[in-house]
Amino acid sequence: MITILTWVSIFSGGLLILLFLLSFVGGLDIDTEVGSADFDSDAGGIGIIKGLLTFVSVGSWVMKIMLGSEQNPAIAAGIGVVSGLVAFFILSQLFKLLLRNQENVNWSMEDAMFAKGQVYLRIPASGNGIVNIEINGVNREIKAKSKELNEITTGTPITVVDIEGDFVYVESESNH
Predict the structure, then answer these.
(1) What is the DSSP letter of 174?
(2) Measured between alpha carbons, how far apart are the two ends of the chain, in Å?
(3) Does 93 lie in the same domain as 8?
(4) Would 123 be classed as within a structural domain?
(5) 29 is in which domain, residue-wise?
(6) Is residue 164 scored above 50 in pLDDT?
(7) What is the pTM of this model?
(8) With 90 as the cut, is the pLDDT of residue 26 above it?
(9) CA geometry: angle at 91 spanning 33 and 100, to 5°?
């Protein structure tokens, strides 16, 4: 029994490590559909496959250690199951912690409409400059033109009032 548990824990642990390395290095996502059920080991989260491998690997290893110290097989199995569940929970919390700062990098110019920001490079009355606007939690530098007849200086708070192609039209906050 101990030999079988050793091989199960080594195989599942090795496969788990291989999946994690492929996920982190290559962005490998394993998505499988069986009937109407969806199984995945997505690189972003722990996934069903990685969670199952974590449970089996840690649970069988702890059970092997408990049986090696001549514990009751029922107690060893119970402690193995609990250890596998705890390992799965810790690993899922670790992934949530690591992915908490992930940002949505997809955006369009329409997301800038009515956004507030600040002039980065001055905007001459008849020319263009650059403004900093926060879109989806990320500061973006966008080419801007003024709706006003006078220059808007660097550092002036602005509001986007219109969009045209790659430019946003802005007005200074003092005009609102």
Answers:
(1) G
(2) 77
(3) yes
(4) yes
(5) 2-99
(6) yes
(7) 0.49
(8) no
(9) 90
